[in-house]
Amino acid sequence: MKWLKNKYYLLTLALIPFIVYLGFFLYLNQLRKPLTGISIKGLQVEGSSQKYDVADGNIKNSFIVNPQLSKKILVLSLFYKATKEDPLFTSPEMDHEKVAASVQMFRDYHNALLKRLKQKDNIVPFNFLRSVTKVAAAHSLFMVKPTTKNAESLITGYKEAQHNYKKDLTTLINKVQKYYPYKKEQTFSTLGSSTTNRIIIDDLRLMLKNATALEKEINYRQDILTKGAYKDNTRAITIKSLKDYKDKVLLLKKEELVVPKDQLNKLRGPFAVETSIFNRLRLRR
User: Fold this and answer.
1) How far apart are CA 169 and CA 175, in angstroms?
2) Spatial distance between the Cα atoms of 164 and 244, rounded to a whole number of angstroms
3) Of the residues 52, 157, 165, 205, which has the fewest C-beta atoms closer than 10 A?
4) pLDDT of 86-101, one tens digit each?
């Protein structure tokens, strides 16, 4: 009986590595699923000098890849997928060098104007704008060279941009309320439309609320990069007219991040816009 117990004990010990490997294999299989139909070239992960290509979740240009290395490659692939499908603070068409030069030129002219008017108050979010140019540069680099290091730099840029977005926006809200208190409603008219200080402050507060949504999204992106915690939660952008087309909703396809002009011209603003990251926004055309 003692011999039989030892036999089962040894068999259990022998099965443990197999069970662990099977569990890891199933985990890798889960990482591969969102990559169906996706092709990524030149992936380079920490701990390896080789570049890898991934197609449909399969690592192509290597005969033998150990499970841990496979995990790193697939996780980086998922981060690449999320970054390409839904860029934060930038767009593929943005020329970060030209934008950076424009921001600096704007800052120089703005400072000269303040000096000429002998004013010190500055409500232009230059800290955030500079952060955006850094994110755009990091994004462009990662798209060309998808390495773990470049992905981490992009995350760092996201966090800086979100911090400055919140900081500059808070400063703006405080200054608007200083000169145009919320409790005393005032109306402003420009080019055939009008608004009030309360509408402006409410919209700014909504933008501040969206800073929290951005923070959550950035943490999610970081979890993708570190844990492979990818969730395909993309949903269509919904645009609803608040005037003539109250019941009509235009659903855009995933790749259509901007409303086509022919559709936009059929609607009469203002509009309510909601995306997977931002809450309701009020826009005027």
Assistant:
1) 10
2) 38
3) 205
4) 889 988 778 888 888 9
